[in-house]
Structures are given as structure tokens and as C-alpha cells.
Design goal:
Helix content of chain A: 55-70%
Order of helices and strands of chain C: HHEEHHHHHHHHHHHHHHHHH
Structural class of chain A: mainly alpha
Strand order of the largest sheet of chain C: 1-2
CATH class of the largest domain in chain A: Mainly Alpha
Largest sheet of chain A: none
Number of domains of chain A: 2
Number of strands of chain A: 0
Largest sheet of chain C: 2 strands, antiparallel
Number of strands of chain C: 2
Number of domains of chain C: 1
Radius of gyration of chain C: 21 Å
Strand content of chain C: under 5%
CATH topology of the largest domain in chain A: Methane Monooxygenase Hydroxylase, Chain G, domain 1
Shape of chain A: flat
CATH architecture of the largest domain in chain A: Up-down Bundle
Shape of chain C: globular
Distance between the termini of chain C: 22 Å
Structural class of chain C: mainly alpha
Oligomer: heterotrimer
CATH superfamily of the largest domain in chain A: NADH:ubiquinone/plastoquinone oxidoreductase, chain 3
Radius of gyration of chain A: 29 Å
Helix content of chain C: over 70%
Chain lengths: ~140, ~625, ~475
């Protein structure tokens, strides 16, 4: 066990040094700046600094969920499409099996897209809430 | 395995199916439908039994087993679910399904128009299922299962009229007291399994003589435990007090469960485990002594009852006492023979009593009946035939042959004391039987219920009474249970000396008893009434009416001390110790519940902490 | 290269995925609740049938997936549980005012994930399967999102599950760093040549944490009651049955094969977790008054018992685990099924508070009987399936001489009996001025009712006549590769 512990220390001492160094560096930066930096009190000192403009209103604004929806759908389809790159660079090597695999993959993606559009995930505003547009078009 | 064996499971599956149909109908079934399902399931089981019996009797009558499946198999614990068919179980099977069917049929008449008839037949079918399982099981576990099953059905059926709290109390009493016996039986099972490593009955009987010397203390304990179980179920001293109260149930229940089948399960158990009892002769002797004591005690108690069902209940105890006596002298097949004839004539008596009770608008007090013989001829016939068999009227009744056999066996075994008890018991039997019949059917009608009695009609009412009456005569005694080879030879098989003389004495006792009773209850009624209305006669009457005061004794000796003990121990240190376990559990629960904060951050923290602990453990274990 | 044998072996998974795509397109085309349910059930049944063909074709192994007997067992369990959940979903969602059909889509995806998971022999498929199993579950749990608790349960499961996944991935990374391989067989070979060491052990420990979370092993169990309580009935049922069974089977596979898991200390830690889990799970359920939470705690305790099979990990361990898992699934499906049926059709929060069940017997005797049977089985009363499972576990522990664990099982069962009986008593209490029937009378006609009744009968049948299942299990689990 003794031997073992020595071996472990010998093997991993660098990590220990790294951890100690990180903590020391953080402590140094915060500690030294708090020691050396000057302090002053004032009415506007506690306000958030936004390029010289005084902040107005609440930070907790409500965004339409559609922003998130579109963002998420984009990410999903984007990432799925990345797989096609893998196929494109090896299209000759994988041959027909690869082709059919990619075809099924694309078909599933398409099915997903059809589904998304049919359930209204891509509509900017829900149909029921926008009767004007419906009658207008 | 013959053809008959593969049909064997039907004998209990059919009643089980009946139970299921009735139970699942959720009370939506019409009365007619319930009766049809309830009666026909047992009827079909009886048909199957008849078929199997014919096959069995025409074969070589050797014991056969049918292994259905192995329940679980771990190590050497491999309880199999198997059935065993031999002379003993086929006799019991015949009684259960045959007499059971007749009683079910009668119940269809008895229970007509009652509330909850579906429930009634569901319980009855369940009872038949459990009882068949009890006698067919090839291992003690299955037997125990059936044993508990019939106990539960008995409980349910005694408390059938549950709206009256007294009936509930009676059911409770029966359940608790038989439970005492069941505990003994369970201990016996554990003992056997610990010693022999098996619960298979055939294996036990085979291994026991090699494993134990005769009179070994362990085998004596095992036999005692089995005896304890049998005492509870068969209502023998001192666990007999429940049976008289059990009469609170509907009369067909009393006929089926508390006369013909369930209460004789103790006799069956001892006969089945004869190999254990033969190794413990003193316990076997104890069986005989208890039987003799019970038959006398119950005989006297029956003399002083006024409720016709209670008279029959005490008479049942007394007759089972005879069976125990027979077991005690080693005459196993005499015991089973008496069990069979008793099932016939006691079922007949109970059903006839049921006919009287229904005809007289649920009046069952003898002091309010009387003079019914003209109005209820069929019930009267039942009582006469059944009563004659009960008091063992010579030559023409089944009871004579079986009871005489028991007395003869006790003589042959040279048990003079038991023989004397048996003879006195026979005299008592004649006395209370005649008193019962005269009190119910002769003299003047003592109430409006009796005066307005309406005789029962129809096949359901008549057929069971007539068939059972036929079986209660010498015709029933011609059925010889095929017990040779299953049970050991009786002491009376080797000698014939004095048999005829004893037969004459026994016959004389029965006739003398009947004559004496007729003289007493017909001619000397006023004298008797004066005798019991004051002085020592009255005390004796009260004592016998209370069945020697066992209930009071138990109340004083056990129930009250127990209650006092409980009262004292209410805040006892030992109790606190047990309470400590509970409060520690509760405390731990409260502490742990506090961890369920509902906050995700707590949960995540706990995960991280847990992971850290796991890693630390792994690192240190390294 | 994919051969026809591979394709053949993949058929069940492909069928489930194809059903999912079909259902998705079907929804896009026209919303039809009954038809969607029907198509889903049809697809799952087809997959079950094809599973039998795959089984008779023999073992097939691809680089990522292996189709041996253990995978077959896992797939059967996942598919059967999913079928039961789907059937109950139909009755449940009838009353749901929002979109009903997506629930089936999610459940089919989760089922496909579970199937991949049980067949995985590569860390990539393990991770992929686990995530495909979990992701739809977030949606399913939060499906009735207008109900606060449902939403809460979905979010909670999402956040905590993500944390657990981080542990799992870190563990995988450590193992990879030591062995340089990701396929489990190669990973083992690599570990053996490099001698394992502290990092491999740490990796194994972290993976255990990640998988232990899904199995709600103490101390990673805290999410269980909240999520079970909040999630809609069918989702909670799926989580408690199909999801847990799949994760357990993959854990079983790893523990049985991997030498990194055969270090004595890891077994000790596993044993400690098992003991903790069974005791704490039962203790927490003690005075619980919400049936769904109670079942959640009970499921924690049951996985404590199941862990015993992993701790012993030889002899009959796999067979025991299989038998216990089957009994657990039957019983839990039955119990949750009754809760779901009582909350069907959907009308706000599920009927899970215990006072809803007061006097249930007098209103709905069949459902009360089913619940009674299931509770008896959970308590391990003889002649129910639960007894057989518990018996095997105890026998296994005794045989391996793990007396602490056997003691824990017994203590846990005693505590368990208390709260199971408490619920049972409630079912039969007569309430003064009790309401009449509180739900559609024709539940028995509905498929869900038939399913729970069948499950209760199975529980009893397995308790009385367990031989076929035991034989099947010993065939199914005999050689583990």
C-alpha cells in the first residue's frame, strides 16, 4: 500500500500541482485586485453599466415561444444534415448500401419536416389567433 | 397412471370454477342461476368422483399419485403440487362430493329467497374445493392449504347472517379457537420438515420408522402437534367450545361443514399420519382418552340443551369422540368407517332439522316446537331414521355397525376404560336422541310457529332426505371403505373372542337407552321437570346446559387473565422496546422525508455527494 | 458490412422505428386518436412476433449491437411493457383536451431506444439508446403540461437526467482513456492489458452513478417520487417499467461481462448501495399518502432487491434477475394500471391520493381486486409472482453468503408489508355516505381494464405455477456473452 501510494503520487503529482496552481492563481487575482483597487461609494455606483446608457425596464422580457421553436428546429435539422457530409465524402466507398441508408435517413428527416409543418410548428403565428390573415389570403 | 387420475383435478377445479363464476357475477346473477351454478358444480364433481371410484375399485386399488407441477425448486426445497389417490382419500372424496352434493341440493331449497344466495353458494363451493384439496394433497403443505381454506370458509359461513353481531362473534370464536389448533399443526409441519427434510406424506410415512425409534421424544412432539391441530378442527376437548356456537350459520352449513366433513378433518389427519402416531404410542393413547372424555362430556351436554341444532352439535362432538377413541386404540379403519356412516346420518339429522326450522319459521327451540310428526312427515322420517342410526339401533342402522366395530376394537385392544366410556356414551346417545325426537315431534304444539308449520315440497327438499335416510340404514353400512393396505391392521382383526357377547351388550345398551328415554320423556315428564326446576337437579341441568362450563372456565382462566395482563403491559417496558422499533422506523422515515424537498438543487446535490462517496470508497478500496 | 442476417436481427427495432415514422406521418395527414393507437399497437405486436423469429434464428452480433438471449429477454420486456402502457394510454388520453396522438409517437421512440439499449455492446449505442429512451420521456412526463405537476415532473427529470448523463459520459471517457476502445469487448481487453487501475475503477464508478440514477438507486433516487407523482399515469408507468427494465438489463450485461466490475471493492460498494436502497426506499414509503409516490418508493426498494443479483453476479444471478424483473414488471404494470384507469379519462391531476381509494372495493370491485393482488405481490406474499421473485433473490443471497443483504431484504419486506397492507385496508374501508360509482361503468369493456385484469391473473398464475416462466428464463439466460 505504501509503495502503491508513492507510485500514485509519482504518477499524478502534476495534476495536484495544476489544481493548486489554479486555485492559487484565482486567489491571487481576486485578492490582489481587492487589495490594490480603490473603492468609492456613490448613488450610481451600484447601477449596471451599459455603455454609459442607463438601463430601463426589466431584464425579464417575454419572447414569443416561436423564437425558441425555430431555433430548436434549426439546430435539429442542421445537426442531422451534418451526417450527410459524412456520407458525401465516402459516397463511392459505401456504394448502394450507403445510398439507401442515406435515402432512408433523408426520408425520415423529410417526414419530420412534413410533420412539423403540418402541426404548425413553422407557422409564425397560430392559425386560430390570426383570423384576419386567414380571410385575407 | 390410469385414466381416472387425469380426471382427478376436476373434483376440485369444478367447485373452484363455480366459486369464480359466482364471485365474479358481482351479485348480478339471478337466484336461479346462482343455485344452478352452485349445485351443478358440486354435482359434476360428485359424478367425476363416482367415475374415478368405479375405475379405482375395478383396478388393483393401489395408491396412485399425480404430480401436477413443482412449485419452486431451490436446493432441496422442492414442494410439488401433487395429488394422491388411495383408499382413504377416495373414501373422503366420496363423502365430500357425494354428501356435499346432497346438502347443496337441499340448500337450494333451504336458502330460497334469502338475501345473498350467490355469496352463500360461492362460499360453499369454495369450501368443497378446499376440503377436496385437503384430502387429495400428497404433501402436508397442500393439506395445510386446504386446512386453512376450510377454516376460512367455515368462518365466512358461520357469520353468514352477519347483520346479527352474535353470529359474527360466533364466527370469530370458531376462527380463533381452530386457529390455536392450526398453529400446532404448523409447528408439527416445521418439525417434520426440519427432521425429515420433506413434506411428502408418502415419504414421511416411509422415512419416519427409520429416522425415529418408537417413543423418541421428537416424534412424540410431532404427534402431539398434529393432535393439537386435530383437536381444534374436530372440536375435541379442550378446543371444542366453538362448535356449539358455530350453529349460528345456516343449517346446510352445519350439515356439511360442522357435521359431515370439516370437523372430521382431524380424524382424517391422524389416520393419514398414522405412521407418526404409531411411533408415539402414548400420544396415540392420549388421542383415545381425549376422545372418550369428549364423547362423555358432549353426551351429557347434549342432554341438557333445548336448541335442536345445539343438541346435534354436541352429538357431533360426541360421535367424533368415538372416532378419536377408535384412533386411540389403533383401529384406524373403524374410525374412518364411523366417519362415513356418521356423515350420512348426521347430515340427514341436520337436514331434517333444517326442514323443521324452515317449516316452523326459523324456530329452533325445542320448548316451542312439538307435535310436528303429523305435519312434517318427511322430516319426522329423517329424524327417526337418523336418530336410530345415531343411537345405533341394532342390525337395521348403519350407526350400529360402525359404533359396534369401535367398541369391539377397544375391547380387542384391551382398553377396558375406553370401552366402558364408549358404552356409557352409547346410553347417553340414546337418551338425548329420543329426547330430541319426542320434544320436537310429539306432545302438544307449544307455539304458533309449530302450529303453522308448512311442510317442505319438491325434489330439492325430498331427494336429499330420502337418499341420506337410505344410506343411514344398514345399506350404508354395506359400503366398505377400501382401506386395507392404506391403514395399519386393527387390533380386532386377529381375534374374535368375545365379539358376539360385546355385540349383544352394545345392542342391549342402545335399546335400553331408548326404552329408558321413552319411559322418562313420555311418562315421567312432570317428574323430570320438577327435578330440574330446583335443588341439585337444577344445578346439574345448568352445568350440562353450559356444557360443563368450559366457556366460563376459559373466560376466567385465559381470557380475563390475558386481558388483565394486556392491561398491565399496556405501558410496559417490553412494549416500549417494541414501540422503540416502530418509533425508530418512524423517526427514520421523518428524517428521510425531509430529504424530499422537491427542489432540483437538493436532488442534484445529493447525486453529486453520492457520486463523491462512491468514488472515495472505490479509491480507498484500491 | 450489413448482411441479411444482420437485417433480420434488426427487424424488431426497425419495425418499431417504422411504426414511429408511420404514426408521425399519420398525425401529419389526419389526427385520429383511435387509429393512431391502433397503428402503434399493431406495430409493437409485429415487432414482438418478429422477435420470436429473430430468437429462433440464433445469436447475431454486429459491431454495435448484439442479439443474444439477454437482449431478447430485454426486448420482450420492453415491448410487452410498452404495449401495456399504450393500451392504458388510450383510455387515459380520451379525456385529454389537447393533442393526444403525439404521446404514442413519443412512447414508440422511447421503446425503440430501450430496445437499442438492451442490445448494445458498444458505449456509443449504450449512450444513444439511453438518450433515445430518456428524451421522449421528458415529453411524456410533461405531456399534460397545463397541469403544473406534470410540467414540474418533466423539467425535473430533464435537468437531473442531464446531470446523470454527464456522470455517465465522464465515466465512459475515463474508461476510454484507459483502454482506447469503445466497444465493450475491446474495452475490456484494453483494460486487462493496461491493468485497469484507479482511473478505470473511477470510470466504472461514474458509469454506475449515471445508470444508478435511471434505476433510482439511493442516493440518486430523490427525483423518483416527484416525477412519478406528477407525470401522467401512462408515462409514469412506462418510466417505472420499460425504462427501468431496459437500463437494468444493460447494467446487468456490463456487470456480468466487465472485469472492471469484478473488483471486490466495487461489489462491496454495490452491495452497500443495494442495502441502502432497499431500506431507504421502504422507509420513505412508510406513511406516504399518495399512491403514486408510494409506488415510486416501492420501486426504489425493489431495485434495491434486484441489485443483489448484480452484487452476487454469478451462479443463478442472471436467471434470478430475469425472474425478479418479470415479476416486478407484471406487478408494477398492474398497480400503475389501476391508478391510470382510475384517472381515466384524463381530467386534471391523476387520482393518486390515498383517500381516492377509500372504499374502492365497494365501488369498483374488480379494480380493487387487481390492486390488492398487485400489492400482495409487491409485498411478496406466497402464491403471487412477487413471492417467487423474492424467494429467488433471498436464495441467491443466502447461497452467496451475503448475510447483510439478506437481512436487508427481510427488514425491507417487513417495513414494506406495513405500508402495502395500509393501502389494502384503505381499499376495503366503508366510507360513511360513500359515493357511488365514480367512473365509467364500462371500464371492463375497455382494453385497459382487460390488460390490468390479465396482469393480475398472470401475477397469480405465476405465483401458483411458476415453472414455465422459470424454465423459459433459464433457457433465455443460460449463456451470457
Amino acid at each position: 500500500m505504501e509503495q502503491n501510494a508513492t507510485a500514485i503520487i509519482a504518477e499524478h503529482w502534476a495534476i495536484g500541482v495544476f489544481i493548486v496552481a489554479v486555485i492559487a492563481l484565482c486567489a491571487f487575482m481576486i485578492g490582489v485586485s481587492s487589495l490594490l483597487g480603490g473603492r468609492s461609494q456613490g448613488r450610481s455606483k451600484s447601477l449596471p453599466f451599459e455603455s454609459g446608457i442607463v438601463g430601463a425596464g426589466s431584464a425579464r422580457q417575454r419572447f414569443s415561444v416561436k423564437f425558441y421553436m425555430v431555433a430548436m428546429l434549426f439546430v435539429i435539422f442542421d445537426i442531422e444534415a451534418v451526417f450527410l457530409f459524412a456520407w458525401s465524402v465516402s459516397v463511392k466507398e459505401v456504394g448502394w448500401a450507403g445510398f439507401w441508408g442515406a435515402a432512408i435517413f433523408i426520408f425520415i428527416l423529410l417526414a419530420g419536416l412534413v410533420y412539423d409543418s403540418r402541426v404548425g410548428a413553422l407557422e409564425w403565428a397560430p392559425k386560430s389567433r390570426n383570423p384576419a390573415r386567414k380571410s385575407g389570403s | 397412471m390410469g385414466v381416472s387420475m387425469s380426471y382427478l383435478p376436476l373434483t376440485f377445479l369444478l367447485p373452484l370454477l363455480g366459486t369464480f363464476i359466482l364471485a365474479l357475477s358481482r351479485g348480478h346473477m339471478s337466484e336461479r342461476g346462482s343455485v344452478w351454478v352452485g349445485v351443478s358444480s358440486v354435482g359434476l364433481a360428485a359424478l367425476v368422483t363416482a367415475f374415478i371410484t368405479i375405475q379405482f375399485m375395478s383396478g388393483d386399488q393401489s395408491a396412485q399419485t399425480l404430480t401436477l407441477w413443482t412449485w419452486i425448486s431451490v436446493g432441496n426445497f422442492t414442494p410439488t403440487i401433487g395429488l394422491a389417490l388411495d383408499g382413504l382419500s377416495i373414501t373422503m372424496l366420496g363423502i365430500i362430493t357425494g354428501v356435499g352434493f346432497l346438502i347443496h341440493l337441499f340448500a337450494a331449497w333451504y336458502m330460497r329467497g334469502e338475501e345473498g344466495i350467490t355469496r352463500f353458494f360461492a362460499y360453499m363451493n369454495l369450501f368443497v374445493f378446499s376440503m377436496v384439496l385437503l384430502v387429495l394433497g400428497d404433501n402436508l403443505m397442500l393439506l395445510f392449504l386446504g386446512w386453512e381454506g376450510v377454516g376460512i370458509c367455515s368462518y365466512l359461513l358461520i357469520g353468514y347472517y352477519y347483520r346479527d353481531s352474535a353470529n359474527g362473534a360466533a364466527a370469530f370464536k370458531a376462527f380463533l379457537i381452530t386457529r390455536i389448533g392450526d398453529v400446532f399443526l404448523a409447528i408439527g409441519l416445521f418439525l417434520i420438515f426440519a427432521e425429515l427434510g420433506t413434506l411428502n406424506i408418502a415419504a414421511i410415512l416411509e422415512q419416519a420408522p427409520a429416522h425415529w425409534a418408537t417413543g423418541d421424544s421428537l416424534v412424540r412432539w410431532a404427534a402431539l402437534m398434529f393432535l393439537g391441530g386435530a383437536l381444534g378442527k374436530s372440536a375435541q376437548l379442550p378446543l371444542h367450545t366453538w362448535l356449539a356456537d358455530a350453529m349460528a350459520g345456516p343449517t346446510p352449513v352445519s350439515a356439511l361443514i360442522h357435521a359431515a366433513t370439516m370437523v372430521t378433518a382431524g380424524v382424517y389427519l391422524i389416520a393419514r399420519m398414522h405412521g407418526i402416531f404409531d411411533l408415539a404410542p402414548d400420544v396415540l393413547h392420549l388421542v383415545g382418552v381425549i376422545g372418550a372424555a369428549t364423547l362423555l362430556m358432549a353426551g351429557f351436554a347434549a342432554l341438557a340443551q333445548t336448541d335442536i341444532k345445539r343438541i346435534l352439535a354436541y352429538s357431533t362432538m360426541s360421535q367424533i369422540g368415538y372416532m378419536f377413541l377408535a384412533l386411540g386404540v389403533g383401529a384406524y379403519d373403524s374410525a374412518i368407517f364411523h366417519l362415513m356412516t356418521h356423515a350420512f346420518f348426521k347430515a340427514l339429522l341436520f337436514l331434517s332439522a333444517g326442514a323443521v326450522i324452515v317449516s316452523c319459521h326459523h324456530e329452533q327451540d325445542m320448548r316451542k316446537l312439538g307435535g310436528l310428526w303429523r305435519r312434517l312427515p318427511l322430516a319426522y322420517m329423517g329424524f327417526i331414521v337418523g336418530g336410530a342410526a345415531l343411537s345405533a339401533l341394532p342390525l337395521v342402522t348403519a350407526g350400529f355397525y360402525s359404533k359396534d366395530d369401535i367398541l369391539w376394537q377397544s375391547l380387542a385392544a384391551d382398553q377396558k376404560g375406553l370401552l366402558l366410556a364408549g358404552l356409557v356414551g352409547a346410553l347417553l346417545t340414546s337418551l338425548y336422541t329420543v329426547r330430541l325426537i319426542i320434544g320436537t315431534f310429539h306432545g302438544e304444539m307449544k307455539s304458533d310457529h309449530a302450529r303453522n308449520a308448512e311442510p317442505g315440497r319438491g325434489l330439492q327438499h325430498g331427494l336429499p332426505l330420502i337418499l341420506l335416510a337410505v344410506l343411514s340404514t344398514f345399506i350404508g353400512a354395506m359400503i366398505h371403505p377400501p382401506l386395507s393396505g392404506v391403514l395399519p391392521a386393527s387390533p380386532g382383526e386377529s381375534t374374535e373372542a368375545g365379539h358376539t357377547a360385546l355385540e349383544l351388550i352394545a345392542a342391549g345398551t342402545a335399546i335400553a337407552g331408548i326404552a329408558l328415554a321413552a319411559w322418562l320423556f313420555l311418562r315421567k315428564r312432570e317428574a323430570l321437570a320438577r327435578l330440574v326446576s330446583g335443588g341439585p337437579g337444577a344445578s346439574l341441568w345448568t352445568l350440562w346446559n353450559q356444557a360443563w362450563g368450559f366457556d366460563l372456565l376459559f373466560d376466567r382462566l385465559l381470557v380475563r387473565p390475558f386481558r388483565i395482563l394486556v392491561f398491565i403491559l399496556r405501558r410496559d417496558i417490553i412494549d416500549a422496546l417494541f414501540g422503540l422499533v416502530a418509533s425508530i422506523t418512524k423517526g427514520l422515515n421523518a428524517g428521510l422525508t425531509r430529504t424530499q424537498t422537491g427542489r432540483v438543487r437538493t436532488y442534484a446535490t445529493s447525486m453529486v455527494l453520492g457520486a463523491t462517496v462512491v468514488l472515495i470508497f472505490l479509491a480507498f478500496g484500491q | 458490412m450489413l448482411t441479411s442476417a444482420h437485417m433480420m436481427a434488426l427487424t424488431p427495432v426497425i419495425l418499431v422505428c417504422a411504426t414511429a415514422v408511420t404514426v408521425m406521418l399519420g398525425i401529419a395527414w389526419r389526427r385520429q386518436h383511435a387509429a393512431t393507437a391502433l397503428v402503434s399497437i399493431l406495430g409493437l405486436n409485429l415487432a414482438l412476433v418478429s422477435l420470436y423469429l429473430v430468437y429462433s434464428a440464433g445469436d447475431v452480433s454486429t459491431p454495435l449491437l448484439v442479439f443474444d438471449r439477454l437482449s431478447m429477454l430485454g426486448m420482450v420486456l420492453v415491448l410487452a411493457s410498452t404495449l401495456a402502457c399504450l393500451t392504458m394510454s388510450h383510455a387515459y388520453l380520451e379525456g385529454y383536451p389537447g393533442r393526444k396522438e403525439e404521446f404514442y409517437l413519443l412512447m414508440l421512440c422511447a421503446a425503440a431506444g430501450g430496445m437499442v439499449l438492451v442490445a448494445s455492446q458498444h458505449l456509443a449505442t449504450l449512450f444513444f439508446g439511453l438518450e433515445l429512451l430518456s428524451m421522449p420521456l421528458y415529453g411524456m412526463l410533461a405531456y399534460t403540461y397545463r397541469d403544473k405537476r406534470s410540467l414540474e415532473s418533466g423539467i425535473k427529470y430533464l435537468v437531473l437526467s442531464a446531470a446523470a448523463t454527464a456522470f455517465l459520459l465522464f465515466g465512459m471517457a475515463l474508461l476510454y482513456s484507459q483502454s482506447g476502445r469503445l466497444d465493450i469487448a475491446g474495452l475490456l481487453a484494453g483494460l486487462e492489458s493496461s491493468g485497469g487501475g484507479a482511473w478505470a475503477l473511477a470510470g466504472a464508478g461514474l458509469m454506475l452513478v449515471g445508470l444508478g440514477f435511471k434505476l433510482s438507486i439511493v442516493p440518486f433516487h430523490l427525483w423518483t417520487p416527484d416525477v412519478y407523482q406528477g407525470g401522467p399515469g401512462p408515462a409514469a408507468t412506462f418510466l417505472a417499467t420499460a425504462s427501468k427494465a431496459a437500463v437494468f438489463i444493460v447494467l446487468l450485461r456490463i456487470v456480468m461481462v466487465a472485469p472492471a466490475f469484478h473488483v471486490e471493492w466495487l461489489h462491496t460498494v454495490l452491495g452497500g448501495l443495494a442495502l441502502l436502497t432497499m431500506i431507504v426506499g421502504n422507509l420513505l414509503a412508510l406513511i406516504q399518502t399518495n399512491l403514486k409516490r408510494l409506488l415510486g418508493y416501492s420501486s426504489i426498494a425493489h431495485f434495491g432487491y434486484l441489485l443483489v443479483a448484480l452484487v452476487v453476479a454469478d451462479g443463478l444471478a442472471v436467471e434470478t434477475a430475469g425472474i425478479y424483473l418479470i415479476t416486478y414488471l407484471m406487478t408494477t404494470l398492474g398497480a400503475f394500471g389501476v391508478v391510470t384507469l382510475l384517472s381515466s379519462p384524463y381530467s386534471g391531476e391523476d387520482a393518486s391520493a390515498l383517500h381516492h381509494y377509500r372504499g374502492l372495493f365497494w365501488r369498483r370491485p374488480y379494480l380493487a381486486a387487481v390492486l390488492t393482488v398487485c400489492l400482495l405481490s409487491l409485498a411478496g406474499i406466497p402464491f403471487t409472482a412477487g413471492f417467487i421473485g423474492k424467494f429467488y433473490i433471498v436464495a441467491l443471497g443466502v447461497e452467496a453468503g451475503r448475510w447483510w443483504l439478506v437481512g436487508g431484504i427481510i427488514a425491507g419486506s417487513v417495513i414494506g408489508l406495513y405500508y402495502y397492507l395500509r393501502v389494502m385496508v384503505t381499499l376495503y374501508l366503508v366510507e360513511p355516505g360513500m359515493r357511488g360509482r365514480d367512473a365509467p361503468d364500462n371500464w371492463g369493456m375497455k382494453a385497459g381494464g382487460v390488460v390490468v385484469l390479465g396482469l393480475a391473473l398472470l401475477v397469480i398464475a405465476f405465483g401458483v405455477y411458476p415453472t414455465p416462466v422459470i424454465d423459459w428464463m433459464s433457457v433465455l439466460t443460460s449463456p451470457v456473452h
